[in-house]
Specification:
The complex is a heterodimer. Chain A has no helices and eleven strands. By secondary structure, chain A is mainly β. Chain A is globular.
């Protein structure tokens, strides 16, 4: 079945770059997403990439997609303490209604 | 727009009790879904709906019922609560178009004793 995998924790120093990785199994994925969850809150969409792209940049965020290896990454440049949160990778297959499959989430801790 | 709202925010139940978690959206979204979030397991899809009158099972549907009588509302019912249903529950909605960003509610934290 469809599966999305992420490492559970990442710790970086303020000002460094963070790279959060994700692998998925569904080769028919059309869109891949990164969501951010701050403590006690719901999920907010950070960015997404369509499967025919290999890179997307949005201010401090860079998404890289390696479709051959089914690998997605999120790079946060100049990481700030406010970036501390759980980051979820999600993929949407070629299905009706846009059902999403989520990874386990990566908890990013930014130390001053 | 209020977006996606969920009630209650917190709930404690005893084993065997039933209850309904409410979810409403005012964005006229066709697609609505319920997820549960457990530590180290991400979000798992319980049930979803692609429009009023249409529901389908997700990954972990056992012990839960849903209905979609209107576009706006998508309640989740726990028929006989079990400790394994202790979790944080999120409702989400989206359009059913190509890039359908899902909008999430704030969550309901449920504890079953």
């Amino acid at each position: 079945g469809e599966d999305v995998e992420q490492s559970l924790f990442l710790s970086v120093r303020e000002g460094d770059s963070s790279v959060i990785n994700c692998t998925y199994t569904d080769s028919s994925s059309t869109y891949l997403y990164w969501y951010k969850q701050e403590p006690g809150a719901g999920l907010q969409l950070l960015t997404y990439i369509f499967s025919n792209m290999d890179m997307k940049q949005d201010q401090r965020l860079t998404v890289l997609l390696n479709k051959k290896d089914k690998h997605l990454s999120l790079r946060i440049a100049d990481t700030q303490t406010g970036d501390s949160a759980i980051y979820f990778c999600a993929e949407r297959g070629n299905n009706q209604g846009g059902k999403l499959i989520f990874g386990q989430g990566t908890e990013l801790s930014v130390k001053p | 727009n209020a977006g996606v709202t969920q009630t209650p925010k917190f709930q404690v139940l005893k084993t065997g009790q039933s209850m309904t978690l409410q979810c409403a959206q005012d964005m006229n979204h066709e697609y609505m879904s319920w997820y549960r979030q457990d530590p180290g397991m991400g979000l798992r899809l319980i049930h979803y709906s692609v429009g009023a009158g249409i529901t389908d099972q997700g990954e972990v549907p056992n012990g839960y019922n849903v209905s979609r009588s209107t576009t706006e509302d998508f309640p989740l019912r726990l028929l006989s609560a079990a400790p394994s249903q202790t979790s944080v529950y999120f409702c989400a909605s989206s359009t059913s178009g190509s890039n359908n960003e899902q909008f999430f509610g704030p969550g309901t934290r449920l504890t079953v004793l």
